[in-house]
Amino acid sequence: MLTEDEFETALATLLDKYDLRKHPYMTQIYDIRKGQTKHLRKKIAYEIVTMKGNKGAIPEFLYDVIVD
Predict the structure, then answer these.
(1) Rg of the chain in Å (alpha carbons)
(2) Amino acid 27: pLDDT
């Protein structure tokens, strides 16, 4: 599985190679993906906090993700 940085690098390479940076479909699906990524991060962080409950300290970064 690629990290987010590896994905961004590979995508940039493909967009440049095939001259797709301004292609309407490619920009649209990229924007959708970015929005979904943010939504999924919030959802996962919220689920972790909810499942953890009062069983211990919850890392601060999880709250930061949810509030962001």
Answers:
(1) 17
(2) 85
Question: What angle, rounded to 10 degrees, do the helices at 24-52 and 4-17 form?
Answer: 170
Q: Using an 8 Å Cβ cutoff, are 45 and 66 in contact?
A: yes
Of 31, 61, 35, which Cα lies nearest the Cα of 48? Answer: 61
4 CB-near residues (< 8 Å, 6+ apart): 37
**pLDDT tens digits along 10-45:** 888 888 898 888 888 888 888 887 777 777 777 777
Domains of the chain, residue spans: 27-68
Residue 13: how many CB atoms within 10 A of its CB? 10
CA distance 68 to 66: 6
